[in-house]
Amino acid sequence: MLLVLLSALLAAPLGVAADAPAGTSVESADGVSIRYEVVGEGSPPIVFVHGWSCDRSYWREQVPHFAKSHRVVTIDLGGHGESGTGREEWTMTAFGADVKAVLEAADLRGAVLVGHSMGGPVILEAAKLAPGRVAALVPVDTLQSVDDPLSAEQIDAHAAELRSDFSATTDRFVRGMFTPRSDPALVDRIAEDLSAAPPEVGISALVYTFRYDAAAALGALDLPVRIINADKWPTDLEALRRHDPDVELAVMPAVGHFLMAEEPEEFNRWLERAVRELTGR
Questions:
Q1: CA 142: distance to chain centroid?
Q2: How many domains does the chain fold into?
Q3: What gap in Å lies between CA 213 and CA 217, rounded to an integer?
Q4: DSSP letter string over 202-224?
Q5: Is 79 a member of any domain?
Q6: N or C end of the chain, less CB within 10 A?
Q7: Is 189 among the domain residues?
């Protein structure tokens, strides 16, 4: 992407900008209003799903690039960005239903779902809920250890820390996701953005992310999966393939958790290769 465009985008705060297109809304299965945006034309359609406490603007570096040759959809999951609230529990199944509602509203078929972080479990659930509309999955920096989940005690400890001081705990949590070479201004913006998320949504969503049985979900799907992870944490590819033999892994070097924002041009190239492989099928 052009350096001028990159500089302009990074100068703006993350989160839905005041002058961003309002997008379109559809009701999820439980009646929560889900905001989404569609741009571009071409197959396969690509649906971008953000991570924990983020929103659709986190794909701002990908949308103009891929909209040149694909129909591109970005979504604000329930409780995030411009989407509605009103749920008592923010589960992966509920988020998957949000994506399903958008797939149906936009009449997408053969879609490639791209999900960052918590968005990885979300796209697994969406594929289970809308099998005829999803062709392939690209989880991004997620599903590193599907056979070694956190214990109930560890999850409870994380939740208790967030309840005690959501903003400060989230700030520390997010800053630990980057590397020493990460842009300090970008780190500050993302840490500030996620720390300002609604605690009632953030705590519930994180607990359900940690509880999610990704291994079982992979085993229930018959879809190709192309994972793009950062090298900050190891990924157990052997474990992933025990549950879905059609899993491939690409590891981007020297980036943190928000690889699509830290090195957008490189990430776009890696995602292009993944989509080409999946389209070739």
A1: 9
A2: 1
A3: 6
A4: HHHHHHHHHH--HHHHHHH--S-
A5: yes
A6: C
A7: no
Instruction: Tell me whether residue 177 is in a domain.
Output: no
CB 67 within 8 A of CB 17: no
41-77 in b/e form (b: 16+ CB < 10 A) is: eeebbbbbbbbbbbbbbbbbbbbbbbbeebbbbbbbb
For 275, the token pair is: 């989509």
Q: Are 278 and 226 in contact (CB under 8 A)?
A: yes
- pLDDT digits over 111-138, tens only? 999 999 999 999 999 999 999 999 999 9
Q: Domain of 65?
A: 3-149+212-280
What letter would DSSP give residue 101?
A: H
pTM > 0.85: yes
174 inside domain: no
Q: How many residues does the chain have?
A: 281
The type of residue at 89 is E
Say which CATH number the domain at 12 has.
Answer: 3.40.50.1820
